[in-house]
Write a structure and sequence with these properties.
This protein is of the alpha/beta class. It has eight helices and five strands, in the order βαβαααβαβααβα. Helix 2 crosses helix 4 and helix 6 crosses helix 7.
């Protein structure tokens, strides 16, 4: 069984997913971490090969990762921040992949707020606190503003992440228990 986390950078996907995986004693795979383990620094890859090549490679790695995971166990996949916002032509299977992830019964969209300005404020604050990103306020603000409507329009389970991570994880767990025929911890 797969559980997906999608949303912008700084929404709390990885933190929530790792807490959930610990609670469920299952595997958690972060697509960004998988990409970096195989291809190196994401920003450098984009700088050298371009965003569309990065997105295409990221989708290839997503499919590879899904293939590697055991289908008879619970697995959590954290998708990259732009995963649901790539240009449709970036990969021959992208439209199908995107629809499958969006319509999957255990896909959770994490956003700090459905209010655009509040969401921008929280995302930028969180992203600027990540020293490893080496990003700029303007860049992070542009990314969330340009992607917000795409994410807000997705038809999957929305979880607000404006509260403490353990509370967010508890809300995801409660939703899973309500949805699944098996009983999660």
């Amino acid at each position: 069984m797969l559980i997906y986390f999608i949303g912008p950078g700084g929404a709390g996907k990885t933190t929530t997913a790792k807490l959930l995986a610990s609670q469920l004693e299952c595997t958690c795979c972060d697509l960004d971490e998988y990409f970096m383990a195989l291809e190196g620094d994401i920003e450098q890859y984009i700088s050298e090969k371009g965003y569309e090549r990065y997105a295409s490679r990221n989708l290839e790695l997503f499919l590879e990762l899904k293939e590697k995971l055991q289908s008879n166990s619970i697995n959590v996949i954290v998708c990259s921040s732009g995963f649901m916002t790539y240009p449709d032509q970036v990969h021959s299977g992208y439209i199908k992949i995107k629809k499958e992830v969006e319509n999957h019964p255990f896909t959770f969209l994490l956003l700090p707020s459905l209010d655009l300005e509040r969401c921008v404020q929280l995302i930028v604050k969180r992203q600027m606190a990540r020293s490893y990103l080496n990003s700029k306020v303007e860049k992070e603000e542009f990314k969330i503003r340009s992607r917000f409507n795409i994410y807000a329009g997705l038809k999957c389970h929305l979880i607000s992440t404006e509260q403490a991570p353990h509370m967010v994880m508890a809300r995801v767990l409660a939703r899973l228990n309500a949805l699944a025929p098996i009983n999660f911890l």
